[in-house]
Amino acid sequence: MFGEFPIDTGTAVIEADPYGANRYILKVNGVPSSHVDLDDPTYLDFEYMRWMEPIFTIGFPAGQFDGRARKLRVLHLGGGGCSMARWVAASYENARQVVVELDAKLAELVRVNFEVPRAPLVRLRVGDAAQVLPTLSDASRDVIIRDVFAGSTTPRVLTTASYAREAQRVLDAGGVYIMNCGDTADLAGAKAEAATLLEVFEHVAMVADPPMLKGRRYGNIVFLASDEPLKLGPAFERSLRTAPLPAQLVAGEAVRRFATGAAPITG
């Protein structure tokens, strides 16, 4: 299981996590891509994924989905080690998930080594996220997660207003579009993404740790967008404050202030 593996886009490395008996780190072309715990799929190691967790548990309580007549429908744009897909599968009975991964050899490597549930629970679809999303049916997903990187940045085509409108079309009523945005200290990319989402969706929020929001370092910002009010009450904020890396919620007019001076991404 350990070692270096050739994939379509370069090289993948699977390393043992020294702090966990059955935990592994997946690196793609030298960049840490995913962390998985084979004994506990509900364990999330990456901080930005821990910030995503309450979006599900509070916004989409498991009790609302009986696993029969109503199943949670999740689309993952970007596969990696399928950490979030494994978490959703363990947290929601009979959830239906599609994971879009550009690299066919990486998808197979992850399927074989990381115990990803089989279809129809989790379907790994090899393809370009820019091309796959426009082919999906209207109102066919409850949650869409965009977590695609080429190196340290998300391909521009996946950040445009037209792409956000495709996500909006594919989301069902009450659905949420979740985006992982990596940015440098100047926050120019994150501000442009905020401006783009504000042009498309009625409700936009963002989550990050305070030093990142103050422009002190490179890091991750998790964006949430929906055409219906987001469930961001006290329980949601408390879950962020008590995370191992505490995070701050920015919502409403504060997002517009954050995006001041930035133009929506077009093209």
UniProtKB/TrEMBL annotation:
InterPro entries assigned: SAM-dependent_MTases_sf
Record keywords: Polyamine biosynthesis
Domain of life: Bacteria
Matches recorded under Pfam families: Spermine_synth (PF01564)
Signal peptide limits: none
Protein name listed in UniProt: Spermidine synthase
